[in-house]
Amino acid sequence: MKETIKNLTAYQAELPVDVVKAKYQLDHLARLSANESPYGPSPKVGEAIRAIPDDVLGFYPDGQATLLRQKVAALEQVDPEDLVFGVGADELIQLLTRTVLTPGGNMVVPSPTFGEYALHAQIEQATTKQVPVDEETGHVNFAGMLAAVDERTEMVWLANPNNPTGVFETRADILAFLAQLPASVVLVVDEAYYDFVDAPDATLAGDVGNYPNLVVLRTLSKAYGVANLRVGYGIMTAPLYPVMQAVRLPYNLNTYQIVGGAAALDDQDYLQDVVKKVQHERKLFQDFLREQGFKFYASQTNFIWLQVGDTKRVGELLLSQGYQVNDRLSDTWLRIALGTPADNAGMRDILAQL
Ligand SMILES: Cc1ncc(COP(=O)(O)O)c(C=O)c1O
């Protein structure tokens, strides 16, 4: 076995809602620990999946995910041949690290950020250099990230907006950073939460054509509300595109993912409605946190990262009242996904009593 992964522990996946309800004897449980959508997907997704004839079951799916490829290309205004699909953005994170990192190489990430990046680097026997975000604002320390790049650096990861901080970096700042990166270093901008951003000009999808070392990731798990379907995509050009296509499994997306994902993308009115609700709830929650004197970072996502002192105590308190949040990422900061208006109000009541 690879020496670097002997002591790896498995990802602590979310427990099923029914299990948590039974354990804590709860009638209502709001699962707000995995940044899922409380609104779920457009009803058209289920309709499209149910309309798939059983005949398809006996045959391998379309390995090119053509239907989805065409929809995404039109939506993002990119070449269909610049798209690699994955079983969630997770699979693309795995594929990218597998493709780019070599044993003894390294990658640079802000800290905190999404834990999957470092996990996969470790599996590839590469190391991860973590550059703390600005303590006050949560913004990425671009100068520090550049200073961390050395001759063994093969990748840089930027979740934008970042998870768990929720903080958004402008396209201009990222492009300025990219301009200073050696062309041999791949920059992955993980835009999993892009749909929730209310700043203009928020994506680098249109820049991929100008930078062979730039990759943009997206997922349908968040704003589109289909986390269970497991659909994500990466936008990239040659030389990465053909190699990533060769590295991925030939039939990684099944027909239900392709058809369901396409239906989700088709219903942009539904998406915009969800996004508006999340942005409204985010404002209410942040106004409340500000009034109450909590330290938190300004979020452009569907979750908020706030300092609570003893994370476990506050996490347990919220859970005992039916609100499951993420208390596993820090001893002092909690990540709360925004839920329904009623659930958000319920959580505010509890936080106000702290
Ligand atoms: C920043 C970031 N990237 C990627 C993912 C993975 O998303 P998916 O469900 O598409 O695998 C997540 C999920 O929480 C995330 O927060």
From TrEMBL:
UniProt pathway annotation: Amino-acid biosynthesis; L-histidine biosynthesis; L-histidine from 5-phospho-alpha-D-ribose 1-diphosphate: step 7/9
Kindly state which keywords UniProt assigns to this record, in alphabetical order. Answer: Amino-acid biosynthesis, Aminotransferase, Histidine biosynthesis, Pyridoxal phosphate, Transferase
Query: Does the entry feature the keyword Transferase, yes or no?
Result: yes
Extract the GO molecular function terms from the UniProt entry: histidinol-phosphate transaminase activity; pyridoxal phosphate binding
- Family the UniProt entry places it in: Belongs to the class-II pyridoxal-phosphate-dependent aminotransferase family. Histidinol-phosphate aminotransferase subfamily.
Q: Which GO terms describe its biological process?
A: L-histidine biosynthetic process
Q: Which cofactor does it need?
A: pyridoxal 5'-phosphate
Q: What is this protein called?
A: Histidinol-phosphate aminotransferase
**Superkingdom of origin organism:** Bacteria
**Protein encoded by which gene:** hisC
Task: Please name the taxonomic classification of the source.
Answer: Bacteria, Bacillati, Bacillota, Bacilli, Lactobacillales
Q: Which residues carry this modification: N6-(pyridoxal phosphate)lysine?
A: K222
Tell me which residues make up the Aminotransferase class I/classII large domain: 30-344
